Amino acid sequence: MKIIKKTNRFIKTVLPACLLGLSACGYLDVIPPAQADYEDTMKDEATTLGFLFTAYSYIPGVNPFIYQHMENSADEMVHPKDWGVEEQQMLFGTISASGDPGKWENVYNYIGYVHYFMEQLDRLNPVGVTEEGKEQLRAEAYFLEAYYHFRALEMFGPCPIIPGKMDQNISKADIPGRSHFDYCVDYIVDKLDQAAAILPPKRETADLGRADATICKCLKARVLLYAASPLWNGSFYTRNWRNTNYETPGYGTELVSSTYDAGKWERALTANQEALAAAKAAGYELFDIETANTIAASDRVPLPFIPGRETDTDENKAFKERVRMFQYLSTAHEADNNKEIIWGQIVSSSEVGGVNPNISRLPNNLIKKTDNSWWGGYAGWAPTLNAVKRFYTENGELPENDKEFYPESEWYTRHDMNASSPAYTENDGEDTKNDIIKFNAKREARYYAWIAFDGCQYSPIIKNNAPLWLNLKNSLTHGYTAGLRNAAGTGFLTKKFITPDLVVSSTGNVTGSRIRAPFFRLAELYLNLAECYAALDRTPEALEQLNVIRKRAGIKDVTSADLSTMSLTEWIRNERFVELYQEGHRYYDIRRWGIAPEVLSAGVRYGLNGMVEKPTFEEFNTPTLINQPIKWDNRQYLAPILNSEIYSNPQLVQAPGY
Hints:
By secondary structure, the protein is mainly alpha-helical. It is built from 20 helices and 14 strands.
């Protein structure tokens, strides 16, 4: 896979200090004071684009892919307990209004950038920017205004709508408070409709990352899906949360509707149908095996080892190609002919040797270097046992429901009953696969592409162009040792977003491709549609959309006969868990469905017994409650607004429970 450089346009451009020195006094302190040379910031087309790209530049920073962010406190994985990163404030229930892990100030600062850009675009009349060009730039600004408002809405709930540049001398009585959730949704959707009517359907390669009409329609589809979901459609967790000093036009002091409206699902369905049609018309397609094989041939990445599929049959080869396809699905970008990414971004600290995604995910002590020191990752993304149970067997069933899978009493026994554990050495070899348990055999392709487990081949070339075999019991290499900070010990690590061509040399040099994190990809739209159809009791249509994704995964279609073991809603939600694993959706899915007390409470998340030094096979493979102070309180449905904002703005009310 060729490495493509991120266009500098999407990095914060170098502007005068007056633009970059944003005040931290509050969410309306976003307009820098006038400077004598300020006209230079938009004197021509190049500087105008530079200003616009500065307004884009917070998108990589307020995203769900960075390991510290709140979105990683869902039930997909845990970080090492002692890290103390922002997401753990939400995970452990210690989040408070004294900090800002939800990025409130920055989101509103960048809304201010957008409004200031639009004002200056008309005032300065930059040379070389035509009226048609201005219209296109305004449309991008409408998208950015919608996107940043949506990020505030999904994190904090009903939020202030800032429709234009605010006067810095505004009186406290006129500062906007929270608007009703539905009012926020309508405002965001209106901005997206305006932008989509003007922008091109798709961007050329040179302009990747800039808004287009298809991206606008995808965001609209997601916004309306969320708005139709139980939390915001009559089932909010408290009935007495209202404004006190601020009224939303048409809603009074109410912030969340207390009645169910099926029309919201109809509206979401229409938006997702339009988004999918627009995406297909623009040439987007589901990523496929043929494309992945072409990239792998160029990268010289061989087929992976899969337990139970060692023999060289056509069926086994096809399965391994599907596994490798899913590895490339989450890492290949548009230049690799990945036509599934509708909107991708290179996120902060995502250099090939950076923490996002590589160093934070890779195992400890990956390779012993020539100077006799170790090079390794942080082993920081540890899937829970609950999470890996949600991936299907090769038959497309959950492990506990598949009558052809191993009985649960045998899950944690050795897959190869004739093998024995390898000796503890500083060089784990292929014999580590002797310790693969039956639970990790006969699973679907996405499991082997994205989940790493004891005894697996983590990657066929990552260890100085040789395979890395994962031994999570070996304290001399990848396992826990006393005092090790970078350990979560669930018995699993993740491989999602680790590029198949990643190589760590014997000198510790890291080479490989840089990913574009998929903010929107085509698979989401099919799953959105399935959810909308199911909510409207249109079962055949829901199954049709669901099975598009399952067919690509190589597992059986779900039919009406399968709805006796799991409801249609459960099938769709579980498919969403697997297909969109670790892409930032699960945090918001749990909340909008109102199921957080079931899946995020204390005492429900398990792993294997990996926080033991040099455990036996039997000790390690024992389901164990994860030893972290995980808790759930309903206030965690929303992030709190900073206390300083509440104190300075009499119109704002705090989220319930803070």
